[in-house]
Amino acid sequence: MSFRDHLFPADHPRIAELRGLDAYAYAPVARHDDFTGDLIAGWKALYDEPFSGVTSDGALIPGLYELRHPNPGDAAPDAAMVAAAERLLALLDDDARARILHPIDSREWQHWANPEFLQFDTGLRLEFQPPAVREAFLDLVDASLSTRGADDVRTMMRINGFLGDVVGLPGIMNEFSYNVSLYGTPGHEDPWGWQLFGHHCAVNCVVIGGQMVVSPVFLGAEPNEIDEGPHAGTVAFTERIALGRRVMAELTDAQRADAVVHESMTDLPAGRLHPGDERHLAGAFQDNRVIPYEGVRADEMSATARDAVLALVADFVSILPDGPARLRMAEIRAHLDETWFSWIGGTGETDPFYCRVQSPVVIVEIDHHCGVFLANDQPQPFHIHTVIRTPNGNDYGRELVRQAGHAH
């Protein structure tokens, strides 16, 4: 089924009442809307909590993360990153520089969100910056992430711009409707990092003595393809969705029955279906969420199924450059016997679904969603959210920053 079968009529209130608004004009409208206003109020209450970290039972597991200096081949590309950050800062005037810079342990890290409306106007808004500033920040993204990771970020941004054009709301959704910030002072000794967030794309990147933490990361798309224009043929998440289905295919019938915690995507227990997040649990403002393990554990799986779980996680980890990605996957493999896989929804070849891989050191989620700017009232394969977290206190590199002596 094509996403174009679910376009609202141009005069539908969902579209017509927002036409002509930009991000700043839309923000108060969103705050006073019955639906988005309730979302904002709920998320604001969560943001007000001091950071602790996502856990499985409310208790942080100590000793999972160690501050160390990786071998040169596994270290973050900090020289290229620092150079890109300094070029960006050199383009800014004093006011813009003051706005984009935050302390490394700032709570502003936790401002990120994935909806199209502004809840926190943190840092600089790319769409209102000169082209040179926009390109300089994207150069920092390119310098920090793998080629695949940087391409994925640009894909989400371009799909967002495509959606805005398709539904006639480019002031609310465009290729550059994202907020960006720097944390700490770019350099080779003290921890520092950067953040990008906006509709369907949020990336938090920290470097600490050559180590690298890129999480939380939220990548999503509505729709998951660009079918016209200069980027026609762009498709998001095809491989990731296939890898999720592959895990299910490698399980035994009994394991598959254990993995499927709910067969319906919509008929779920009270509290399990969030009006904005739907089924995913580790998204924006969920920095302290308790997410119990569920499903089937990897130490009960065949070697082939365990490899399929690792392949799925590796697809998320591919946002990191090669060396940091190797270290991250080694960290994840060390806890493979404590890793759980769970599923919600049907298991047919085209069924929408939710799945999660969770261990003491990683959470990844895939979720198919209902329409937000498309009219489908049931989850469809063309609207996808994905999330990766580093639980037990190391999102935003917080535990390593603490060990480095830079946290209050």
Sheet with the most strands, sense and barrel status: 12 strands, mixed
Helix fraction bin = 25-40%
Tell the overall outline.
globular
Which structural class is indicated by helix and strand composition?
alpha+beta
Output the number of helix runs: 12
The overall average pLDDT, rounded, is 97
Task: Extract low-pLDDT stretches.
Answer: none
Number of domain modules? 2
User: Strand percentage, roughly?
Assistant: 15-25%
Rg from alpha-carbon coordinates: 20 Å
β-strand number: 12
Strand/helix succession = HHHHHEEHHEEEEHHEEHHEEEEH
**How widely separated are the two ends?**
51 Å
What structural keywords apply?
408 residues, 17% strand, globular, 2 domains, twelve-stranded mixed sheet, alpha+beta
What does this protein structure show overall?
The structure is a single chain. The protein is α+β, with helices and mostly antiparallel strands and 408 residues long. The chain has two domains: 3-50 and 77-215, no CATH class; 238-395, no CATH class. The chain contains twelve helices and twelve strands. Strands 1, 2, 3, 4, 5, 6, 7, 8, 9, 10, 11 and 12 form a twelve-stranded mixed beta sheet that branches. Helix 4 (78-90) runs antiparallel to helix 6, helix 8 packs antiparallel against helix 10 (303-317) and helix 10 (303-317) runs antiparallel to helix 11. 48% of the residues are buried.
